[in-house]
Amino acid sequence: MPAPAEAQAFHASLPEYAPTPLTELPSLAAELAVGRVFVKDESSRLGLPAFKALGVSWAVHRVLAERAARGEDAGAVTLVSATDGNHGRAVARTARLLGRRAHIFVPKGVHPDAVTAIAAEKAEVTQAPGSYDEAVRQAAEAAAAPDAVLIQDTAWPGYEKVPGWIVEGYSTLCVEIDEQLAAAGVSAPELVAVPVGVGSLAQAVVTHYRSRPSGRAPALLSVEPEAAACVLESLTGGEPVSVATGDTTMAGLNCGTPSSIAWPYLHGGLDAAVAVTDGDSARAAGDLAALGVSSGPCGAATLAGVRAVLTGVGAGERRTALGLGPTSVVVLLSTEGTAANPYPAVDR
Ligand SMILES: Cc1ncc(COP(=O)(O)O)c(C=O)c1O
After folding, report:
1. So what's the pLDDT on residue 348?
2. Which domains occur in the chain, in start order?
3. Which one of 88, 127, 213, 314 has the minimum C-beta count within 10 Å?
4. Is there a contact between 135 and 115 (Cβ–Cβ < 8 Å)?
5. At 75, is the pLDDT very low, low, confident or very high (cuts 50, 70, 90)?
6. What residue ranges line ligand 1, CB within 6 angstroms?
7. Ligand 1: distance of its center to the CA of 196 in Å?
8. Which residues form the Tryptophan synthase beta chain-like PALP domain (predicted)?
9. Cα separation of 99 and 101, whole Å?
């Protein structure tokens, strides 16, 4: 099922909405020995330096509409969430714009500037001592209070509706890519690379590309940090598993458990999965910066991942398996700018 057109119409109605750039980078196409490479640049989306507000704005809109339909006083509601940085900042911004309160739980390892940015949106910030998964549990507990509602971008059995709306919101990004590729003379890409934390964005991407009535379906590649490769581990074992996460500059991808509603899409819809190091991501961020694209560690992870898959030992077999040739079109999702998560890139 494709995402409903209502989500795109809703985004288009927001005052700060504009499609983000899809930038062609011929030097990367030459390096990767493919036809064309495009980067979807989410460094400025609805006034924030990451793609996350697409999901949050639509989900909060749906939540408040449901509460209003039930006659509940939406004005008193507090939006509660755990975050690796970008999602919580989007929840805090959305709450502020709507005159609601926000309470955001932040695990360790999130860049201090990202935490400051959440507090600057007038949200209450609770620093959770453990991992992202533990922060999610704390946020869910806090959201059990009256007039609190959990706006979480990952699902588990019994908590699926809001994350489902968040995934719907992300689809706007894919619709924009379709329009932008068409304007560039491309009917469909051959490969799309997605950075993955819990897999909600990847769920949106799989849903979008696997529900096309006609045309070629691109190969879909997930990219995770080596320190938190829960989707790679799950795909390898054939069932969803949690992994112990470590430290990584790719904070937005530092998640130990795939979203329960994403898993069937990831299992059935991804063609390949790869894990990259912080060093690979920092080098990719430096290269993208040199080409004029602002990409934070999570955003640049996709270039690092595509490099790992399309070059080096065994690249020929991997390219064949993915159906790629010298004229193929590759799309990299760069989901955050450097301002979202300002770890230094490697200068080139
Ligand atoms: C910048 C960035 N990219 C990608 C992701 C991954 O999204 P998901 O957790 O839905 O896989 C996140 C999640 O927080 C993020 O902040």
Report:
1. 65
2. 5-51+163-340 (3.40.50.1100), 53-157 (3.40.50.1100)
3. 213
4. no
5. low
6. 50, 52, 84, 86-87, 153, 195-202, 252-253, 255, 298-299, 335-336
7. 6
8. 16-314
9. 7
